[in-house]
Amino acid sequence: xxHHSNVNMRRSRLLALALVAASLPPIxxxxxxxxxxVEPLIAxxxxxxDYLRLLHRDIHFRWAVQFLEGVAAKRPANDPINNSKLExxxxxxxxxxxxxxxxxxxxxxxxTEFDRMAIFAVKGDRPFAVPPIDVxxxxxxxxxxxxxxxxxxxxxxxxxxxxxxxxxxxxxxxxVQGRMKEALLRVARYTRGGDNNAxxxxxxxxxxxxxxxxxxxxxxxAALARAGDARQADRLRPALGRPESAAVAAPALAALKxxxxxxxxxxxxxxxxxxxxLGARILSAAGAELPPASPCVAAMSxxxxxxxxxxxxxxxxxxxxxxxxxxxxxxxxxxxxxxxDPHVRAAxxxxxxxxxxxxxxxxxxxxxxxxxxxxxRAAAAAGMIRACGDLADEYVLPLFKAxxxxxxxxxxxxxxxxxxxxxxxxxxxxxxxxxxxxxxPVLAALAARQDAPGRALYQPAALAVKKDPYASAEARRIVxxxxxxxxxxxxxxDPAVGLMAFKALLRAQRHAEAMDWLVGSFDRLPPETLIDAxxxxxxxxxxxxxxxx
Length: 549
Known about the structure:
By secondary structure, the protein is mainly α. Among the domains are: 46-163, Fusion Protein Consisting Of Minor Coat Protein, Glycine Rich Linker, Tola, And A His Tag, Chain: A, Domain 2 (2-Layer Sandwich), CATH 3.30.1150; 364-464. It is built from 28 helices and four strands. It has helices spanning 2-22, 27-34, 46-69, 112-123, 167-176, 180-192, 198-208, 214-226, 233-236, 243-255, 261-264, 273-286, 295-305, 311-324, 326-336, 342-352, 358-365, 374-388, 393-396, 406-415, 421-432, 436-448, 452-467, 473-480, 485-488, 498-507, 511-521, 527-539; strands spanning 87-94, 100-107, 142-149, 157-161. A four-stranded antiparallel beta sheet has the order 2-1-3-4, with helices on one face. Helix 5 (167-176) packs antiparallel against helix 6, helix 7 crosses helix 28 and helix 26 (498-507) runs antiparallel to helix 27. The radius of gyration is 38 Å and the shape is elongated.
């Protein structure tokens, strides 16, 4: 009986406790309501946010741990230092070695001790981490604004202050100081912030500075000239006198509508073979058509007809005339087919053969397929395909029985322009030879074909190149030249494909992605690639306002 009585008493007590507990507010809710708010995290992104969080680590210890918890929290709640409305703003800079400088109380709290400790939290007794270049101002130091509060915010209100001149003013100074990557990162930040012209401003400034290497300087000037900068003409004219840079300067000057003949004519004189060769090379590279009455056309025609001029140079003159004055070269080319010099005969076959020449061209060129010179046989074979199409197939077939690859390699580009079954069969025969000298020409020809059977033959060859980690850079460039931009983007780290992907992104108006590649690759790309990339940006600027990420 005593046992049952004890059990009943316990049950009565538990019931009474339950009734009391039910009448009280939930413990968890009471604690949540009374809990102090947590200091917010610094949410800035990128290198800027990472560095602000490093600063906060040191500042937080001095402010929140040493002062708020070590001093203020131990004083009475009504102590002036514990007024939750206290707030101070401190402006300061951080030098290249991490040491704080120019620490200024820009807005005081009204409490001297509070303000003094805010200053101490910044100055401290040891330097901060070294700032990244992303946060430096134009004066060579990093500027910050920091809020110190007595409430839950504590010292979480830190931000970078941008002390920067306009890009047009700042970039030359940054370049002189060797801070190019910093300048580029600033440009990327401006672009993401909505400045649609920032990268173009950087590209022009970077290309405008003088390059120690004359060839690179010419390439940079040419990139600006192609973007319409007429001031580059004075920078490019001297490059015409250097064989290594003339071919780059000439088309850039032509893009500025500058007549090159007055600059070239003095070189086209008998007795100066080097001057003649350079002059012809400049006019060929420019590619601008000259009228038949042009002094340069007349001078080159006379030099070509002069038998004392070396054969190789006469061949160069004939090819140049075919480019710059097609109307006057037909008669000269026909005569060159029977010239005693093989270089001239080859140039004659090359310039005589025009699309649509038909059987008359076939009969003129066919005897040259048996010429003693491989160069002539190659030019004749290519010329027959170009001028006659499938009519030439049975005439060039004997060349496939020979071991030499030069005539076949010369025919391949012309076969790539056709769409007939016979021309594709010739390319297939070349591919089966598995000759290293024919791989790239045949692959390029198949890549150029637009007919369905041609594409069907090309696709497995292209796939093999894509899967082969040891494929040549030339083969990879051929295969990816016409690839979709989405296929190229994952390959942007590939040295052979990266620039192609960058240009594809520009054409697709995906400038934010193109900029990310350019900024990330800037330190590892050779100057000639950077020149090409910045020139491509100027040629394909953003067509709509930049959007923030």
